[in-house]
Design a protein that fits this description.
Blueprint: H1 22-36, E1 42-46, H2 49-60, E2 68-70, H3 79-82, E3 101-109, H4 113-123, E4 130-138, E5 153-154, E6 161-167, E7 173-179
Parallel strand pairs: 1-2, 1-3, 3-4, 4-5
Antiparallel strand pairs: 6-7
Length: 182
């Protein structure tokens, strides 16, 4: 993947849509998560794109057991705009959280509200020793003081656009751009 040398509002290099390659970014994410994961650390993916990433990272890192999946649905602060979908609670944590080092994984970091809600949900299950955030893409636009420890790409989208991760039948990742729901 070739990146453009232009800098975004954050001062970090910005990846353009024409060079946004989810599989190449996944390779960088894998290396970043490998560096973040402490001995006996756990992976927890945010439903749904983050859960797909955590599942594949878990396998590629050769970790025992299964990764956790956490839903942000029950702690969201924007029900009036988004509503809650049926079956919205996808949280599945097949391990103890208390005192453990967690790497929280998501596909796209935007306002920080999904991350905040997921961390609130995580703490409903115990108090981790630490939580590090790893995302595939940081698209800026933060409304909360949340920062990823690992973000292979930064991208700026036009107002009204939303970037989401897609996964095909064989598990290959790609990105889709949609009109933003607000």
């Amino acid at each position: 993947m070739t990146r453009k040398d232009n800098l975004g509002a954050s001062g970090r290099p910005v990846t353009t849509l024409d060079t946004l390659d989810a599989e190449a970014l996944y390779t960088e994410l894998l290396a970043g998560v490998r560096g973040l994961l402490k001995p006996d650390g756990l992976l927890v993916g945010i439903w749904s794109g983050g859960a797909w990433l955590a599942e594949r990272l878990h396998k590629d890192l050769g970790l025992a057991g299964a990764p956790g999946v956490i839903s942000s649905a029950l702690h969201r602060d924007d029900f009036s705009q988004r509503g809650m979908s049926a079956g919205a609670d996808h949280t599945r944590l097949p391990f103890e959280i208390q005192g453990r080092h967690i790497v929280l994984v998501d596909d796209v970091l935007y306002t920080g509200r999904t991350i905040r809600a997921a961390v609130n949900e995580l703490y409903d299950f115990g108090r981790p020793a630490s939580v590090a955030l790893a995302v595939l893409v940081d698209r800026g636009g933060r409304e909360l003081p949340i920062c990823a420890a690992c973000a292979p790409a930064t991208i700026e989208l036009a107002p009204g656009q939303r970037l989401s991760l897609a996964r095909d039948d064989v598990g290959k990742f790609s990105f889709e751009i949609h009109a933003e729901i607000r």
